[in-house]
Amino acid sequence: MKKVVINILIILYFLVAVIVTYLLLSYNKYNIVETDNKYVLTLKEKNPDFKESDLLVVKKSNDYNKGDYVFYYDTYAAKVTVKYAKIENVKTINDDEKEIQLENDLILSSENILGKKQNTTTYKTLGAVFNTLTSKWGYLFIIIFPMLIAFVYEIYAIFKEIKKKK
Question: What is the pLDDT of residue 149?
């Protein structure tokens, strides 16, 4: 029974390692996880609707209207961040492109908008886990080092078995 539980924990650990590695390999140029039609992120700034420890899965959208709350890339600072604001005005340029004015008088192209609040799934407190696992030190100590130790132990066990047979 003990061996079964240990094997299940090892399988879960490797599953988490594979998922975290996939997420790290899915970063876009702004260091946000981007899959086919979703973004996975945590907000760095405080706001009334989301906490810093919330993991947000934002579904991409192209239909924006006045009054929608949206997540967008703030590219005006030295470091690009994702922020959250309300749309004040939408101006259609062509079928694919819209000019969006936010409540803070910022005007953006629709390509800088990630998605709407209505299309967002929130996972409470998983954002802190996500931030830890995807940080360079967290990934190193939680994913890489334990795997390295397990690998070295397996090599040691093989050499020990070979010496026993001689």
Answer: 95
